[in-house]
């Protein structure tokens, strides 16, 4: 089965946002990954509803929205209205994670939970069966272009085991430092979806780079 490829538009050229999204429409990408940062949960600020609505206006593929924000439950409906197809919140940012997951699914979006590099997989034991997606951060969240954390492979294996044990249908998504060198092993360990930002948008041929990632599985 070919992996799901989700280029992160945070790494795109915002001065040419329409053409960048249209390029992704023509590519073999499956989703458009949208990183939302508030300057509080992570030490960076990205963009909010107006930019996301602009992305949605041109996108022909699902929007995979990753909320790196505090109190995400306050904004679920607004992100859904703005075009989010999947909404992923951080385990570390949610006091009542199960309630927030239910809120996402009630909005009509698929629900994901993200784990920072230091957060163990076992914390999802009681909720994994309810999730549509788990996003493993393979860098510390907040900035693109960081070095991939090698411990990610072990976490993917542990998460895959948990998904099987609990008969969950959750997909495993990897975000941070993904490239052609680590994509295949991530998929072999159990990943289903790969987020790639600067690796795609800094490439001489983004279309070919996305196609190569899509072909990473044996």
TrEMBL record:
GO terms for biological process: pentose catabolic process; pentose-phosphate shunt. Keywords: Carbohydrate metabolism, Cobalt, Isomerase, Manganese, Metal-binding, Zinc. Its EC number is 5.1.3.1. Its cofactor is a divalent metal cation; Co(2+); Zn(2+); Mn(2+). InterPro entries: Aldolase_TIM (IPR013785), Ribul_P_3_epim (IPR026019), Ribul_P_3_epim-like (IPR000056), RibuloseP-bd_barrel (IPR011060). A divalent metal cation binds at residues 33, 35, 66, 175. It is an enzyme of class 5 (isomerase). Substrate binds at residues 8, 66, 142-145, 175-177, 197-198. It catalyses: D-ribulose 5-phosphate = D-xylulose 5-phosphate. One of its GO terms (cellular component) is cytoplasm. Pfam families: Ribul_P_3_epim (PF00834). Catalyzes the reversible epimerization of D-ribulose 5-phosphate to D-xylulose 5-phosphate. Belongs to the ribulose-phosphate 3-epimerase family. PANTHER family: RIBULOSE-5-PHOSPHATE-3-EPIMERASE (PTHR11749). This is Ribulose-phosphate 3-epimerase. The gene is rpe.
